[in-house]
Amino acid sequence: MLVVLLPLTSLSRAHPVSPSSWGGDIDSGNVEGTLVFPEFYQYSCPQAIDIVMSFFHQAIAKQPRIAASLLRLHFHDCFAQNSIPNKNSLRGFEVIDEIKAQLEAACPQTVSCADSIALAARGSTVLSGGPYWELPLGRKDSRTASLSASNSNIPPQNSTLQNLITLFSRQGLDEQDLVALSGCHTIGNGNNQPDENLERKYLYNLRSVCHKAGNENVISPLDFSSPTKFDNTYFKLILYGRGLLNSDEVLLTGYAGNTDHQTMDLVKSYAGDEGLFFRHFVKSMVKMGSISPLIGNNGEVRKNCRLIN
Q1: Does residue 80 sit in helix, strand or coil?
Q2: According to the annotation, is 261 in a ligand binding site?
Q3: What GO biological process term is on the record, naming one (predicted)?
């Protein structure tokens, strides 16, 4: 049995260096006086990105589902100082281990686990057909872990809309970020515990899968139409009442009398305009990665992503 003493704690922290690259809506890349920027490893480990992408090409070819797992890992890492309550549903640690081992062999104690995860998340998106973005690098790895942060900050799949908005707001993320980042559910699977308000035929089909297997923990595609392709089909399915999770469907239906229908309007906009979704997703990914970055003399560059040095 593998025991993860400190699983990837607060690693993935990014901050943009060129606001023009993201439409001018995000501050320039100077966090607490220390720059992070895409060329951070240009001299200290120029082969870093090639190492990550070369390995990741092989990994996703063998197991396409790993792309969604690494995107999810990046999300959990940004929102909390560890992911223990969700560790049984988080996959991808072994891929990060192998990427990190190759990086350590080429450039010892140079490329952080934070940047390794962020690079893997971008690779997941691109190799699944989604958008590319310039990724600011140079973040450090945390020396601590927080179970309470994980319990309180990670949105559960049965979240109400207000709960989602509140949890995202705590991280400095708004409703546009919430809907855009939820779009990563366009790839991967989720536990087959469907929202009761789903379109009837789809709901019955999901339930029949669980009953046949005799297991309530059966997984189903979050986007059954194109589960390995990063596109805007996820939002189209929500409009048809076919979002797998309650936290998907409430983006459309969960305003419950609130006059602010922004999430509903965004779901409709993204369903009709994939380019708009891609642009907002990229901006929100960078913004999410900017949550409490560890840079400069803060944190460390881990030799093993599962343990502090």
Answers
A1: coil
A2: no
A3: hydrogen peroxide catabolic process
The pair phi, psi for residue 20, each rounded to 5°, is -65, -25
Q: Which residues are catalytic?
A: 76
The pLDDT tens digits along the chain (309 residues) read 333 333 343 443 333 333 333 333 333 344 333 456 778 898 999 999 899 888 888 888 888 778 888 888 888 777 765 343 344 445 677 888 899 999 999 999 999 988 998 898 999 899 999 999 988 888 888 887 665 555 577 777 778 898 899 989 988 999 999 999 999 888 875 555 555 554 444 444 444 444 444 455 555 555 556 677 899 999 998 888 877 777 888 898 876 555 568 999 999 999 999 999 999 999 999 898 878 778 878 889 999 988 888
Residue 74 annotated as binding site: no
Find out whether 211 is annotated in a ligand binding site.
no
Query: Which residues contact residue 65 at a Cβ distance below 8 angstroms, ignoring those fewer than 6 apart?
Result: 91, 188, 189, 228
Helix ranges (H only) for the chain are 48-62, 66-79, 93-106, 113-127, 147-153, 161-170, 175-182, 200-213, 233-239, 246-253, 262-272, 274-289
Q: Which amino acid is at 261?
A: H
| CB neighbour list of residue 220: distance below 8 Å, 6 or more residues apart | 189, 190, 192, 194, 206, 209, 244
Is 57 marked within a binding site? Answer: no
Identify the helix (H) or strand (E) that includes residue 35.
strand 34-35
Q: Which two tokens stand for residue 38?
A: 């895409």
Q: SS3 of 137, please?
A: strand
Distance CA 287, CA 265 (A): 21
In whole angstroms, give the CA distance from residue 59 to residue 42. 25
For residue 288 the two structure tokens come to 């999410």
Q: At 125, list the tokens.
A: 């998106």
